[in-house]
Design brief:
single chain, 730 residues, 41% helix, globular, disordered C terminus
């Protein structure tokens, strides 16, 4: 990643960007900042980290128009065909899947005037991200990764979008959601984004957005009846969600039956044999133990050594775990024994029978470029006979005749899973949330709705506990820069081991963040008047001071919406001293002490004991780390970046210099001194970064100092500054 920094020219000058955005008066500060950063950045790979509904797609359209006016070619990519289609339709960017990009051979570009925009980057696996960055380097293409680390991650291993941000990639932050149109919804989603998960559940419950019904059949009946009470137009603008495929099919069956009783849906006419992906990871699909008789294997490449032909369907007859062999039946009826480890690129499907009637809403589940079919594309049955001959119409109004005999890549579209809903928007959302819900899926589901949200669950208190769990992929790449895992853009100095490098600082910061979250979770779980001892408060204060005024810690302790299982021990266990990113002696101490932070006693009678153990472990952790002084330095930059975000909120201006002035003015009015204001500008200002990239360190420093002087000189009278209690020495 380091060799990609400062290696390309800026797309446009600050004045050109200002003129391009002059008429865009409705942009949020995050949207404008993302476009300004992207237009002025000299890094080959950058990122947009944006909350759900923050206007990322519209901002990409504006950036695309700016870049094309400067002679650049823009290409869009996404992990799924549906996401690529949405990007192409909404941002007017020609788009395709990441898999398609990686599978084709393209000649290197003679210039560096190609920009790849990768939407839903949080769904990329580590393997695909590595391959994409390698391809971008070979093609001399810039890459803008767009996504949200708080949403769902890839089924495959790794969380590279998070890893790259932890590794110091230049990132624009879009933190203001524009999707929700009611105050109640805005407040709930804002709480979830801030990690206040239990508060969000309480707020939704108080506003009538949660229906707690203990019996599953009554719960399904309630959501069905509520859906039927909507008008046809409201139903078309409603997104129905379920956590698992089993729940999705059960709810679909109940709603279909009710629609047939209303004569809104025709009688069942044909039974379709549907192939549903089992979503096996690449690693799982290499072992015969993960296959079942009746499964269907579809290779995505031809494997001559195994006798497999690309895109043909092979039915599993039997498996042998001892020899890791699978016996399959070919389309011609012959038996074939294969080694699943020798044909890695394949998809494994389960067979399910679904009833089809006139009026059914269905969707394709696999891409077919020849037929112009994309995975996720919806259509409606307008007529069908008992032989499977059907007339269908898609959402664009195109009518087609198809035969549905044989194994089909088709499924019901009436109800979606939470995972498949990422990237969608609806006026109304109705969601089943039970045992499968977690922190990421809760955020994705709740943030889809514009006007109405209704959650159906067995018990509100249990739901509040379940949403604290995170199932985001957690591997070593979450705590060390991606280039140490994938070697992407890292050939500059492979033996460099300076522990004070910016990348080392970000690794320490990520570790500190994980420790803070675990501490917050533990304290909140045990909070009780009888156990809130003075030493607990002292430990928290010491933790806060030792992390350089890490402002989000106190917020997390107050919000207390963080899950318990992602302990500091689990986080640091994933750290290995690769190329001495963190000095081994420090890593060992951190791991040993942090391991004590993992709470092992959950019974109420042990809460006081846990508080005392936690206090002891925290004190020991910082007594070991404080002599090095490194932890204070590790989090300094991010601390001032967060202050920049805080003081820039609500400021609407298209002039980056005016933005800097107004941010400095707000910080000055809040009681911060000259040095702190200068550090805020240096850490957060896109204009300061542009000066630094184009002219060097000294001109950027001169601009910062001049801005701070102007602020202090224009205050009348000049008051003596005193540091507020919330601002801590670094």
């Amino acid at each position: 990643m380091q060799t990609g920094k400062g290696q390309v020219a800026a797309i446009a000058t600050p004045d050109e960007i200002d003129r391009h955005l002059a008429q865009e008066n409705t942009l949020t500060q995050g949207q404008r900042g993302a476009i300004e950063m992207s237009g002025g950045s000299c890094d080959r790979v950058i990122a947009w980290q944006g909350v759900a509904g923050s206007g990322k797609t519209y901002s990409l359209k504006l950036l695309k128009d700016l870049a094309e006016a400067k002679g650049y070619t823009i290409q869009g990519f996404a992990p799924s065909a549906e996401a690529a289609h949405t990007l192409a339709k909404a941002a007017h960017i020609p788009s395709d899947t990441v898999a398609s990009l990686l599978s084709r051979q393209v000649a290197p570009s003679p210039t560096d005037k190609t920009i790849w925009i990768v939407d839903e980057a949080g769904l990329l696996s580590a393997k695909d991200a590595h391959a994409l960055l390698q391809r971008a380097t070979a093609q001399q293409a810039r890459v803008i990764l767009v996504g949200d680390t708080r949403q769902l991650s890839a089924v495959e291993a790794g969380n590279p979008f998070k890893s790259l941000q932890a590794g110091g990639i230049q990132t624009a932050y879009l933190e203001e959601s524009r999707r929700q149109k009611t105050q109640n919804l805005k407040a709930a989603v804002a709480m979830i984004e801030a990690g206040q998960l239990e508060q969000a559940i309480h707020h939704l419950d108080q506003t009538g957005a949660i229906q707690a019904i203990s019996q599953p059949d009554q719960r399904f009946q309630k959501i069905t009846q509520d859906y039927l009470n909507l008008s046809p137009k409201e139903q078309r603008n409603t997104l129905l969600l379920a956590g698992t495929h089993i729940e999705r099919l059960a709810l679909t069956t109940q709603i279909r039956r009710a629609l047939q009783q209303q004569n809104t849906l025709g009688e069942d006419t044909f039974t379709l044999t549907s192939l549903r992906s089992r979503n096996l990871t690449t690693a799982q699909a290499t072992y015969a133990s993960h296959y079942q008789p009746g499964d269907v294997i579809v290779p995505n490449y031809t494997y001559k050594s195994q006798g497999l032909v690309k895109y043909q369907q092979y039915r599993v007859i039997q498996t042998n775990r001892e020899t890791n062999r699978i016996t399959v039946e070919t389309p011609q009826g012959q038996l074939l024994t294969i080694n699943p480890a020798r044909c890695q690129r394949k998809t494994v499907y389960a067979i399910q029978q679904i009833l089809i009637a006139r009026g059914d809403q269905l969707r394709w589940t696999r891409n077919n470029r020849d037929a112009k079919i994309r995975n996720g594309q919806r259509f409606t049955i307008t007529a069908i006979d008992q032989a499977g001959n059907a007339q269908i119409v898609d959402n664009s109004g195109n009518h087609t005749q198809v035969n549905l005999q044989g194994h089909q890549y088709i499924d019901y579209a009436l109800v979606s899973t939470t995972y498949s809903s990422q990237g969608k928007t609806a006026d109304r959302l109705m969601a089943l949330m039970d045992s499968s819900i977690n922190q990421e899926s809760f955020y994705v589901a709740a943030s889809r709705a514009k006007h109405h949200l209704c959650i159906y669950t067995a018990d509100t208190a249990e739901l509040a506990q379940r949403v604290l769990r995170s199932q985001a992929n957690e591997i070593a790449s979450d705590y060390i820069p991606l280039f140490q895992v994938t070697h992407a853009q890292t050939q500059k100095n492979p033996h460099h081991t300076n522990a004070s490098d910016p990348d080392c600082r970000n690794v320490g910061e990520s570790l500190g963040d994980r420790l803070a979250k675990n501490l917050a979770a533990t304290l909140w779980r045990d909070r009780h008047p009888a156990t809130r001892e003075p030493q607990t408060t002292a430990a928290v204060n010491r933790f806060h001071h030792s992390t350089g005024g890490y402002t989000s810690l106190i917020e997390q302790l107050e919000q207390a919406g963080l899950e318990l299982d992602r302990s500091a021990a689990a986080a640091t266990a994933n750290l290995e001293p690769v190329d001495c990113i963190i000095p081994e002696q420090h890593l060992g101490k951190s791991t040993a002490v942090a391991g004590k932070l993992r709470p092992e006693l959950n019974q109420p009678e042990h809460q006081l004991e846990r508080q005392q153990q936690l206090t002891t472990a925290t004190n020991e952790l910082f007594s070991r780390l404080e002599p090095t002084g490194s932890l204070k330095k590790l989090l300094k930059k991010r601390h001032y970046q967060k202050l920049w975000v805080h003081y820039s909120q609500g400021i609407q201006t298209g002039n980056p210099r005016e933005l800097d002035y107004r941010v400095a003015h707000k910080a000055f009015s809040a009681g911060l001194d000259h040095k702190e204001i200068g550090l805020i500008l240096s850490a957060g200002s896109a204009y300061v970064r542009q000066i630094h990239d184009h002219s060097g360190k000294q001109p950027a420093l001169h601009y910062v100092n001049q801005t701070v002087r102007n602020i202090s000189q224009r205050q009348a009278p000049i008051r003596k500054l005193t540091k507020p209690q919330s601002q801590l020495e670094l």
